[in-house]
Amino acid sequence: MPSEDILTLAAPAADARLAYGGDPNQFGDIRVPKGGGPFPAVMMVHGGFWRSKYDLVHASHLCAALAAKGVATWNIEYRRVGNPGGGWPGTFQDIRSAFRYLGQITGRYKLDANKMVIMGHSAGAELALCLASRESTMRGAVSLAGVVDLQRAFTDHLSNAAVVEFLGGKPTAVVDHYREADPMEINIKPTQWLIHGLKDDIVPPPYSRSYVESKKGKGEDAHLLEIATADHFDLIDPRSSAWPRVEGTVLHMLA
């Protein structure tokens, strides 16, 4: 089954690459469906445990697949750990700037400002949910195999303590950063869908399961979709058997 090789595939062509800021990493690839619009839109935040080693290319296949279904996509790059200004809060500031830039180009690309969803994969899901907590005008947020509990990620030493690199220290040393950045600790008003493969050995499925239980207990509109046959990368791979369920969730949110 196709899986981690999605990381090495060449990117499908985008309609345009646009800079939303002055840093070399502040840009995004926009893909717009054929037709007259206005089109619903998904802003995609790729994963990679917030590290500069990974870029937006592996998320381009997902974006091209959604564009073929009538959904415009804005696949963004941003400063990561290893880039000047990367890490918290600079990385999140880029996510927010990219979203606000998307709002500025709705007319040019025939986008429906009332039908926008933010989606993130792995560590990108943390950034997507943080954005949803601060930009409540969006339709909803989708977390794909998300690192949605930063305290737990620290305790589990996930990806060699990636969260310590991202936030600049351990929870006891940078308490405010964990409080600001951890989706478990912030209130999120838009609808949330947490999708996780039960064969995921990179971000364990209980991250999403416990998150949804906690958020429902706080009165948030959070939902869980677990896919028994999927691993960490199947959720972003349009060739996988899991993809139709991911795609269907997104299309349902935008309907």
What would you say this structure looks like, in words?
The protein is an alpha/beta fold. The protein has one domain (4-254): Alpha/Beta hydrolase fold, catalytic domain (Rossmann fold). Helix content is 31%, strand content 20%. The protein has 8 helices and 8 strands; from the N terminus they run E-E-E-H-E-H-E-H-E-H-H-H-E-H-E-H. The protein has helices at residues 60-68, 90-104, 123-134, 150-155, 162-167, 175-181, 206-217, 243-254; strands at residues 16-19, 27-31, 39-45, 72-76, 111-121, 140-144, 191-197, 222-227. An 8-stranded mixed sheet has the order 1-2-4-3-5-6-7-8, with helices on both faces. Helix 2 crosses helix 3. The longest helix is centred in the middle third of the chain and has 15 residues, at 90-104. The model has no long low-confidence stretch (mean pLDDT 96).
Keywords for this structure?
8 strands; Rossmann fold; 255 residues; 8 helices; alpha/beta; 31% helix
Explain the layout of strands and helices.
Elements (H helix, E strand, L loop, with lengths): L15 E4 L7 E5 L7 E7 L14 H9 L3 E5 L13 H15 L6 E11 L1 H12 L5 E5 L5 H6 L6 H6 L7 H7 L9 E7 L8 H12 L4 E6 L15 H12 L1
Helix pairs in contact: 2-3
